[in-house]
Design brief:
The complex is a heterodimer. Chain A is of the alpha/beta class. In chain A, 42% of the residues lie in helices and 16% in strands. In chain A, strands 3-4-2-5-1-6-7-8 form an eight-stranded mixed beta sheet, sandwiched between helices. The termini of chain A are far apart. Chain B has a two-stranded antiparallel ribbon with strand order 1-4. Classes of the chains: A alpha/beta, B alpha+beta.
């Protein structure tokens, strides 16, 4: 029986879909069998982020309504071993599916895959309830901004109220230069406020935009700092203990940064 | 680096962000409405008015957070600022 992990945030635009794509790709690079589920019905995007938009025939709603078999709707990503996408429907809305249908769908997928990664839509309405219905683990993505952190806090409360204990935090788009100036909340500030376990810190990285343009997850790019951060997240998800570095201490900032993301100094 | 810190310390926007967030989250988490605080305010005025004359218009009541003496952990606190005009006879010994 595989793990069903929902990637959520409350606020839109903080990087849920990018995170889902990268975690999923990373797990498959680690030799796991993975299916990505786009639960954002009506506003699907995981397909374009993954570069699989031209291969969609059936979607999640077709499966739930019995128009096709589950296998027929799964798109195999040919670039990676054992990585599949179940796209959302684009012409329906969130009410086309209900939580118990999603629960069954996730259960069916978990029979066949080691990891089911569900990309949750923004908000706390039906789409959110659908996305979390079948999950047994949750990841909360936030950026170091008051609006995103506030929404993350609300989501954490809702996840726990729905039986998803111990959600894990990904701090996305951290700008080290701004943290350094005191113009952006740092990792400790955010853990202090949200009081949940941290599973990753992803620095702001232009390569994310570039790789999204191309439809190639950044995690496969060795040169990307964000990609390295996602590789660490993946290893932590698999239970490995990958250390974090403390940005607060005083010496050798760049080397600490490099260490934080698991880099060895090259120059 | 320290020099830079010295200059920027007073207007660190992240500290402002953190403080504002902490306050707004107390309300979010407690799930209290302004009406709820008004109800508490009304009850407090009712009780206290038996013993002293207070300035009702200046009465302030808010949810905030404070450090607990025992273990220095942060806990939510209800803070009321109640200006007293004078004690009533019933309150005196």
């Amino acid at each position: 029986m595989g793990e069903v992990i929902v990637v959520t945030s409350g606020k839109g635009g903080v990087g849920k879909t990018t995170t889902t794509a990268n975690i999923g790709t990373g797990l498959s690079l680690q030799g796991k069998s993975v299916v990505l589920v786009d639960a954002d019905i009506g506003l699907r995007n995981l397909d374009v982020v993954m570069g699989l938009e031209n291969r969609i025939v059936y979607d999640l709603v077709d499966v739930v309504e019995g128009t096709c078999r589950l296998r027929q709707a799964l798109i195999k990503d040919k670039r990676f071993n054992n990585l599949y996408l179940l796209p959302a429907a684009q012409t329906k809305d969130k009410n086309a599916v209900n939580p118990s249908q999603m629960q069954k769908l996730c259960l069916d997928l978990a029979e066949e895959f080691e990891y089911v990664i569900v990309d949750c839509p923004a908000g706390i309405e039906q789409g959110f309830r659908n996305a979390i219905a079948g999950a047994n683990k949750s990841v909360v993505v936030t950026t170091p901004e008051v609006s995103a952190v506030r929404d993350a806090d609300r989501i954490i409360g809702l996840l726990e109220a729905n039986g998803l204990k111990n959600p894990q935090l990904i701090i996305n788009r951290l700008r080290i230069d701004m943290v350094k100036r005191g113009d952006m909340m740092n990792i400790d500030d955010m853990i202090d406020i949200l009081a949940i376990d941290l599973i990753g810190v992803v620095p702001d990285d232009e390569l994310i935009v570039v790789s999204t343009n191309r439809g190639e997850p950044a995690i496969a790019n060795e040169a990307s700092l964000a990609g390295q951060a996602y590789r660490n997240v993946v290893r932590r998800l698999m239970g490995e203990d990958v250390p974090f570095m403390n940005l607060e201490s005083d010496s050798g900032f760049m080397s600490r940064l490099a260490k934080m993301f698991g880099f060895k100094k090259k120059k | 680096m320290d020099l830079f810190k010295m200059f920027s310390k007073n207007d660190n926007s992240k500290d402002i962000a953190k403080e504002r967030l902490k306050l707004v989250l107390i309300h979010d988490r407690a799930n209290v409405s302004p009406q709820f605080l008004e109800m508490i305010k009304g009850e407090i005025i009712k009780v206290i008015s038996d013993y002293m004359e207070i300035d009702e218009s200046a009465l302030e009541i808010k949810l905030t957070r404070t450090k607990r003496d025992a273990d220095n952990s942060t806990v939510p606190a209800l803070v009321a600022n109640i200006p007293i005009k004078k004690m009533k006879e019933t309150g005196k010994i």
